[in-house]
Amino acid sequence: MRTHIVWDWNGTLFHDMEAVLGASNAAFATIGVGPMTLQEYREQYEIPIPRFYQRLLGRMPSDAEWLLLDDAFHDHYHRLSVACGLTDGVRELLDAWRAAGHSQSLLSMYEHDRLVPIVEGFGLTGQFLRVDGRSGPAGGQKAEHLVRHLAELGEWVDPARTVLIGDAADDALAALNAGAHAVLYTGGSHTREKLEPVGVPVVDTLAEAVELAGRLAG
């Protein structure tokens, strides 16, 4: 069976941290929290997202505050993200992985109905056996979504020969829960210092991540 990569989208294949930061600062303003720099954001960010807001507020946001934060973030992100592009080298890496006879899919916690047209707009849909975004409420963790994603892939994919490449500690926790491997990339939402304690390989480029994936699950 082929080695399979499950790619994360936001902060991994899609280089959108400027949009994420701008949308986050707009959301913070709705509850009286001042803006962050990108470095501050990457040092503080946490999944599940309500826990991130708890850290900023010193308490869990109320239901009303959560709705304000979530709505403000997504409204601004949809506007700002249109200026974002793919991470350097993504097209070549996806092409080379397929040409080597391996398979890949895409799993994101971004809303499915918004994710699919963006992936299509970049001409990437044909690279993947499956493209799945989030269904259901925002702010949760990836583990249950990954289990469902792998189940839908069925006989095409063996979790033991699967590597999830993402930019958040939650990506690695989801992979380990599903019996898969993980490699974490430092170019997205978390600093290296936040990623290393998870105990999976941490790399600074997606090219390194793909090379490691071949060794981990090959």
From TrEMBL:
<dbReference type="InterPro" id="IPR036412">
    <property type="entry name" value="HAD-like_sf"/>
</dbReference>
<protein>
    <submittedName>
        <fullName>HAD family hydrolase</fullName>
        <ecNumber>3.-.-.-</ecNumber>
    </submittedName>
</protein>
<keyword id="KW-0378">Hydrolase</keyword>
<dbReference type="GO" id="GO:0016787">
    <property type="term" value="F:hydrolase activity"/>
</dbReference>
<dbReference type="Pfam" id="PF00702">
    <property type="entry name" value="Hydrolase"/>
</dbReference>
<dbReference type="InterPro" id="IPR023214">
    <property type="entry name" value="HAD_sf"/>
</dbReference>
<dbReference type="InterPro" id="IPR023198">
    <property type="entry name" value="PGP-like_dom2"/>
</dbReference>
<dbReference type="InterPro" id="IPR050155">
    <property type="entry name" value="HAD-like_hydrolase_sf"/>
</dbReference>
